[in-house]
Amino acid sequence: MSDVTEEGWEQQLRRRAATVRRAVEALDESVAAARLRGGLSFREIGNAAEINHERARTIATRINGHTKTQAALDAEQP
């Protein structure tokens, strides 16, 4: 049994929750960047990030505002 007090447990849980939040945010940013700048398919991104490809698409849309790659955006420019 641990010697951590109840207050100590709450602090530890808050710290760990914050760590998880930061990790999820970093993963989401990497997913969006992999699509935009890396040009990877959503299936490739999903496999690498160990998430469903539709989740990868949702993340890219939320962060990038679209699902296009940078190459596709550049091709749209006159």
- The figure for the number of domains is 1
Shape: elongated
Give the integer mean of the pLDDT values: 94
Number of helices: 4
Helical fraction equals over 70%
Q: Work out the radius of gyration.
A: 18 Å
Total strand segments: 0
- Could you name the ranges where pLDDT drops below 50 across 5 or more consecutive residues? none
Biggest sheet statistics:
none
Fraction in beta strands:
under 5%
Distance between the termini: 67 Å
From N to C, what is the helix and strand string? Answer: HHHH
Structural class: mainly alpha
Describe the protein's architecture and organization:
The protein has helices at residues 6-36, 42-49, 53-64, 70-76. It is mostly helical and 78 residues long. The chain has one domain (7-76). The radius of gyration is 18 Å and the shape is elongated. It starts with 5 loop residues before the first helix and ends with a helix.
List the main descriptive attributes of the protein structure presented here.
78 residues; mainly alpha; elongated
